Amino acid sequence: MFTQTLTRRARRSPLLELLTGPHGVDRYTELVDRTWTTGEARAKVVAVRRQTPRSVTLTLEPNQAFTGFLAGQHINLTVEIDGRRRTRCYSPASAEDATHIELTIGRHDGGLVSSYLCDNARPGMVLGLDSVGGDFTMPTERPTRILFVSGGSGITPVMSMLRTMRDEGSDREIAFIHYARSPEEACYADELAAMPGVRVLHGYTREGAGDLTGYFDADHLAAAMPEPEAVYVCGPPALVDAVRAHCPDAKSESFVPPVFSAPAEATGGRISFTDSGVEATDDGRPLLVQAEDAGLTPESGCRMGICHSCTRRKTSGVVRNLITGTVSDAEEEDVQICVSTPVGDVEIAL
Amino acid sequence: MTTATITQPKTLSKTVAGKTVTLTPEQTEAFGRELDALKERVIADLGERDTTYIRRIIKGQRSLEVAGRAMLFGGIFPPFWLAGTAMLGLSKILDNMEIGHNIMHGQYDWTGDPALASKKFEWDTACPADQWRHSHNYMHHTYTNIVGLDRDIGYGILRMSEDQKWRPYFLGNPVYAFLLMVLFQYGVALHELEADRIRTGEISLSDKKEILQGIWRKTKSQTLKDYVAFPLLAGPFAPWVLTGNLTANLMRNVWSYMIIFCGHFPEDVQEFSIEETKAETRGQWYFRQVLGSANLTGGKLFHILSGNLSFQIEHHLFPDIPAHRHAEISTTVREICNRYGVPYNSGSLPHQFGTVVRKIFKLALPWT
Predict the structure, then answer these.
(1) CB contact under 8 A, A21 and B112
(2) Which residue of A has its CA nearest to B219?
(3) Looking at CA atoms only, how far is residue B348 from chain A in angstroms?
(4) Chain B within 8 Å of A14 (Cβ-Cβ)?
(5) Beta carbons of B109 and A85 less than 8 Å apart
(6) Contact A200/A192 with Cβ under 8 angstroms?
(7) N or C: which end of chain A has fewer CB within 10 A?
(8) Helix B326-340 crosses helix B25-45 at what angle (to 10 degrees)?
(9) Considering only CB atoms, which chain A residues are within 8 Å of B111?
(10) Are the C-beta atoms of residues B221 and B189 closer than 8 Å to each other?
């Protein structure tokens, strides 16, 4: 704590900036402890639990540079694997005011970061935290009858909301339907069972008998909470769609990257990556992929339009956002290249 | 790189130390392909070993810096002054050579670590990093040893090639060279100003307004740090801190000058004409990099302190490969060069620097 206060004070002092220039205070303090930085939010792993065979739960102690999050939001997590930093987006499961951040990371088959963390996470490991964001959050004035629905690793933002409201001491009516492949893969089952005032219903989609059978439908809704005041759903796109069919106003978040199948419409336009002087002919895929295929290595993160790590300045031309379908105008603007495709000729500062 | 879309098959020929090296177009391209393959092998192998290495060097450098500066506060005792100055000097050498120069080449950009990012790194010397990236990474590394394009041939103030026309001004060649050595960090800082082109009226001072502002900003903070802030912090011991910092900067200046001058100026290193290098292929470019560079022999510590610029040939072939890899690949590079009969210039620091000094004196004279 002393050092953190000291580094915070140091950061404000132009004299120390001068004395530690040109590298800056952080580049010295981080050599003593990698979390002693004021410019970059970092966290130390203080506990590792493996609740289910296909997930790992990390308890993180963030440094002073971390400015917090709202229940339901996501954080970019950076981990170094074989010398390379990899960034992925995860929603904490901990309450928003908790001292420690809890992340439960589900293993994606073939997923580099999730597999690495499932296999190698250990206390003492230092991870980067960045770009807190997302509007899958509750209003400050909490609704009184709330239904939560989640599938798989989509449970984490819901846990954060439930724990936040539990800490607030709410007497609201809450129902929670969680879908997992099997009882072994249902995280937080014990804690949920003990949570006061929350009606929890489990559905298992592959094996095991739960409270509900099959996928979300009108019966599941009726069993959990008929006519809820607010609905929050987080999980695969199919689950989100099913819930939306019954509750059109449901707030949703989906972690599974959208599939950009065959190139939508290759306009055959010319893409100019102006900073590197490289040109390519548009094949309809996202600009990030086309840049990488052209031999460039732009910074990127989630590759699904969430984290903004890949944001670059579009200096001319028109692009289409693959998530929203929005077509930009020709003016200069920042675009997320992982989910943007060119419409005709474009110039990107990359 | 000057890769042209249509390239004339051209037989390369260059006379080095009285022996003529000739490569047919086929040989040149095969030579290039072998070097490309070597580069790909190294790139595919990059990983934790490289980040661990550079972070260990950074930790060593920052520790030397902090310890050196702390010791200089007690510099009234001569052993403290000597040790503090030596440590700070070593720190500056490591910062500029093995850390700064190499990171700014993009050797660690693949790590994704912002502290190792070429575009964000700033070093502990008067020259602003962004200007260096232009004059060095782009101009010097692309147009290496092409007289008229590579501004590192004489840095606009010295006569380092017989192809530079003699003027009476060059009678002072040894004097300018000595001053450049002592004030090397400022010489490097002023490089991008292209003062010689301003003098000849080719460009005007106002063209270089932003460059000058950048140099001023960086030089100001470096000067304030080493010659005002740290000495004042030491209170009554200010003189010892000031002289220690001055000496540490001088150490770094002399050392980096010697290493850098041994990169391209020793005997038998070849220069090229613009005509000769028109529409170069990748193989021809590699050929020029080998003939235009010279290595230094020495131990592991020597190589680290030289920023592995002692492997100047490897560095010029593959400027974006982490420099600590150069020692490993140098045997293969040498073997490839031998097979194609391409001379590989290598020698000890005293020998190579001796030939450089001789050249500085010789080229001061009008009949050379």
Answers:
(1) no
(2) A22
(3) 34
(4) no
(5) no
(6) yes
(7) N
(8) 160
(9) 80, 83-85
(10) no
Strands A74-81 and A84-90: antiparallel
Domains of chain A by start residue, with CATH: 2-133 (2.40.30.10), 145-253 (3.40.50.80), 270-348 (3.10.20.30)
Sorting pLDDT into bands at 50, 70 and 90, what band is A259? low
Q: Mean pLDDT over all residues of chain A?
A: 90
* Residues across chain A: 350
Q: Cα(B102)–Cα(B322) distance, rounded to whole angstroms?
A: 7
* Identity of residue B340: Y
| CA–CA gap between residue B141 and residue B101 (Å, rounded) | 13
Question: Closest Cα to residue A264, out of A201, A334, A320?
Answer: A320
Rounded to whole angstroms, how far apart are CA atoms B152 and B37? 29
> Is the CB of residue B110 less than 8 Å away from at least one CB of chain A?
yes
R_g over Cα of chain B: 21
pLDDT tens column, B280-310? 888 999 999 999 999 999 999 999 999 999 9
Distances (CA, A) of A32 to A3, A130, B62: 10, 22, 11
User: A76, A85, A131: best mutation site toward chain B, by most B Cβ within 10 Å?
Assistant: A85
* B56 inside 8 A of chain A by CB: no
Largest Cα–Cα separation, chain B: 70
State how far the Cα of A348 lies from the Cα of A89, in Å rounded to an integer: 25
Mean pLDDT of all residues belonging to chain B: 94
State both tokens at B271. 């220069």
d(CA B225, CA B232): 10
Q: How far is B264 from chain A (nearest CA, A)?
A: 28
Q: Quick check: B110 and A84 CB within 8 A?
A: yes
Q: What are the E-state strand segments in B223-324?
A: 295-297
Contact in structure between B309 and B98 (CB atoms under 8 Å): no
Yes or no: say if B364 and B171 are a contact pair by the CB < 8 Å rule.
yes
Strand partners, A204: A180
Interchain pair B51, A80: CB under 8 A: yes
pTM listed for this prediction:
0.87
Estimate to the nearest angstrom the gap between the alpha carbon of B359 and the chain centroid.
19
Residues of chain A numbered 76-95 and touching chain B (CB < 8 Å)? 80, 82-87
Q: Which residues of chain A does B225 touch, with a Cβ-Cβ cutoff of 8 Å?
A: 18-19, 21
What does the pLDDT average to over A147-155? 95
Question: Encoding tokens for residue A206?
Answer: 């592959």
Cα separation, A195 vs A163, whole angstroms: 9
Whether the per-residue pLDDT at A312 is higher than 60: the answer is yes
Is A19 close to B63, i.e. CB distance below 8 A? no
pLDDT at position B3: 42
Cβ separation of A297 and B109 shorter than 8 Å? yes
A261 three-class SS? coil
For A95-118, b/e burial (b = at least 16 CB within 10 A) is bbebeebbbbbbbbeeeebbebbb
